[in-house]
Amino acid sequence: MSETTRRWVGISAWILLVLTSMIVIGYGIVHAGIWLWMPTPAEQEASWIGSLYIFFGWLLSIGASVWSHLRGNPVWVSICVALPGFLVGWADLVSPYTLLRFLAAVVAFPLAIGGVAEVIWARGHRQRG
Fold first, then answer.
1. Per-residue DSSP letter, 98
2. Which of 11, 35, 48, 121 has its CB surrounded by the most CB atoms within 10 Å?
3. DSSP characters for 23-37?
4. pLDDT tens-digit series, residues 61-115
5. Quick one: what percent of the chain has pLDDT higher than 90?
6. How far is CA 79 from the centre of its chain?
7. What angle, rounded to 10 degrees, do the helices at 3-32 and 41-71 form?
């Protein structure tokens, strides 16, 4: 296997990890729902299950960020990849029944996609010395 092929396989796996973390976080947000007043116990259980998905996505996001740093990507790429997990996870901990999770996702998801686009644009070459 050539060096280029190996590099692109690694990039593809990393991109899939980033996208999987965003999908799992998004599914958790949708599953948790929003509430204008205190939800019933059954709705609280559904929100709790959605929070578990968000926290699993947080773990995937942190893993992608660490991998990004180990691959030699710029620090801002690693930070942008970690933002969906940190911001949405923080919003879920602070206020589990409001729109804060959605707002955090609207801010963080485009930044993570920007980090992925930078790695693709750089053709996977290590950008730090």
1. S
2. 11
3. HHHHHHHHHH---SS
4. 999 999 999 988 899 999 999 999 999 999 999 988 888 999 999 999 999 999 9
5. 60
6. 11
7. 160
- At 57, the pLDDT band (50, 70, 90 cuts) reads very high
Angle at which helix 3-32 crosses helix 75-94, to 10 degrees, equals: 20
Burial readout 37-46 (b: 16 or more C-beta within 10 A, e: otherwise): eebeeeeeee
Nearest to 85 by CA among 105, 99, 100, 71: 105
Q: Which amino acid is at 76?
A: W
Residue type, position 28, single letter: G
For the chain, report the end-to-end CA distance as a whole number of angstroms.
25
- Tell me the three state secondary structure of residue 14: helix
Q: How confident is the model at residue 46 (pLDDT cuts 50, 70, 90)?
A: confident
Distance CA 67, CA 73 (A): 9
Cβ-in-10-Å burial (0-12, 13-18, 19+) of 89 comes to buried
